[in-house]
Amino acid sequence: MSDQKKLIQYLRNAGHESFMDIQQKSIEGIQSHNNQIVYSKTGSGKTLAFLFSVLSKIDPSSNDLQALILAPSRELVLQIEDVFRSLKTGYKVTVCYGGHSVKTEADSLSQAPSVVIGTPGRVCDHIERENLILSNCSFLVIDEFDKCLELGFSDEMRFICSAISRPKYRMLASATKMDELPSYLNFQNPHVIDAIVEDEEINITEYGVEAGEDILLTMSDLIKSFGDEKSIVFCNYREVSEDVSYQLKDLGVHSVYYHGGLEQDERERALIKFRNGSSNVLVCTDLGARGLDIPEINHIIHYQYPGSEQAFVHRKGRTARMASDGNSYLFIGNNQQLPEYIESPTSFYTPTPTNQELIPAWQTLYFSGGKKDKINKIDIVGFLSKKGGLKQNEIGLITVQDRSTYVAIKSNKIKHTLSKIKNEKIKGKKLKIAVSK
Prior knowledge:
The chain has a 7-stranded parallel sheet with strand order 3-4-2-5-6-1-7. Strands 10-11-9-12-13-8-14 form a 7-stranded parallel sheet, sandwiched between helices. A 4-stranded antiparallel sheet has the order 16-17-15-20, with helices on both faces.
C-alpha cells in the first residue's frame, strides 16, 4: 500500500472522507521542506495536519522512537493522543505529562514507541532519567508553540532540542503568528502554511447585555435562555471562576469550573462533564481559551475582560468553529467598562428573567475501572444495556481512562439505572459505580 493510500485509510478510520485543505497542504509541504510552520486556530484540523505529516515520514520497519510531539498542557497531550489513536495506525504511542504515573510512562518507554506525546517538563524528566532516548528521533513537533513559551517552557524546550540533536524534520503549530523564533529551534527557511486569515472569517455576533443591579443574576438568566446549548464563561482568576460557578448553581444553573490550580483528575472530570452534556456551562480562566477541542460551543460570555486584545480574540475563538456561527456577550452598564480594545456592541440581547432551574439532559456515571482493567466502550454499552436496561439513545459519551470510566446517562434514568447495576460485575470484576462528583 502506498503512503498516500495509508494516510487515506487512517483518515477513514477516524470517520473522515477527505483531507481538509490545511491537512493536504501540510502533507505536501513536509515532502519537500524539512522545517514547517502551521498557523491555524484550534478546531481547524491542525492536529490531523501535523499527525499526517508525521505519519507520512514514519518508517514502519524501524524499532526506534521516530517522532516527539510537545504540547503545553496535559489536556492537549491527551487530546492529541485521542486523535492519534482514532486513526488506528498500529503504531505504538506513549503519553508523558505531569500528574501521570512516572513508572507507567517509564515502563511504556522501555520498548521504544514510534511516537511520544508529552509536556515539555515531563519529557525533560524522562530524558534526565534516561528513559527517553532521542538520538534517533527524526521528527519534532511543537503544538501551540507560542503557548509553550508563554507558560515558561523555554528552558525545557531548549534542553529537549539539544537532546534530540539533529531531527530531520521540525514542525511548529500555533494559533498566533510569531515575528521571531528562538535560535535553539534551528528553523531555517521554514515552509509556512497560514490558515489564520481563513479562520478570521468566522461569523461571531457580538452582543451587549445590560448588567442590571446583579450581574450574576443577569448572567444566569442569559445562560438559561440558551437552553441546552453549550457556553463558556471567562474569568481572569482561579478563585473568581470557582466563586462564579458556585453562585450560578445557587441561581439554578449547573456548571463546572476549570483552571490551572486544579488537580489533574479534577480538570479532566470537568472537561468530561462539559463534553458529554452533564454540564453545558464551563466557567474558566484563560486556560480554557486555547487547546480545548470542543467544536460545538455556541456562546462565549465575558464575565471579566482580559488584559489584552489577543487574549480576547482567543476567548472568542472557542465559538464559531468549523464554519459554524457563534455568539459573544459583553456586559455593559452598572459600572461595567469596556477595555479600549473592544468596540461598543451594536447589537443587544435581553434575556427574560426566570426562576426556573436549568437541568442538564445528562448526568455522568463513574466506574472504577478502565483500559488497564481491559474494559472498553463496547463492554460498557453491553453492561448498561443488559444489566441497566438502557436503550442506545439513553447512553451518551463514554470516556475510558487507564483506571476509570465516565459515561453520560440520561438524567431521568440515572437513579433507576444505578439501583440496578451497583452490585453487578463487569467482565467478572466488581467495580465501584457512582454518580461522578
